Amino acid sequence: MTDSAPASSSPASSSPVSGGPAAWLTLPEVAERIDLPVNKVNQLIRDRALLAVRRDGALRVPAELVANRTVLKHLPGVLTLLHDAGYNDEEALRWLYEPDDTLPGVPADALGTGRATEVKRRAQALGF
């Protein structure tokens, strides 16, 4: 069900994600996992409630951002904060997967735990 893709960036983006997601999902796989039509998944991406980037010529979503048959609860808020701070999708992905010893781990992993408030606080601070 998951499709592993290299963490290399597309030609239009800058440097690759350091650690990166463990697995990638295509949009049809996301749709199946959260039981929505693909056009609704595309709407989630347009609304910045879900993050997708091009890998191997197709939009893909980090598998960790879709858990328990839904998008991680705090992801849309964090994506809004990152975009308000001027981050594009590739930069937001990089930020979510940049190792942070004080969390510990990466912000994307912390979103699914009790540390989501701290991740949102850090994302909000980027705008100042």
Automatic annotation (TrEMBL):
Outline the extent of the DNA-binding protein Rv2175c wHTH domain: 23-65
Record organism: Phytohabitans kaempferiae
Which GO-annotated molecular functions does the record name? DNA binding
Coiled-coil ranges per UniProt = none
**InterPro entries, sorted:** Rv2175c_C, Rv2175c_wHTH
Any matching Pfam family? Rv2175c_wHTH
Q: Which UniProt keywords apply?
A: DNA-binding
Q: What is the protein name stated in its UniProt record? A: Rv2175c family DNA-binding protein
Q: Where is this region: Disordered?
A: 1-21
Residues in Rv2175c C-terminal domain copies: 73-127
Keyword Cytoplasm among record annotations: no
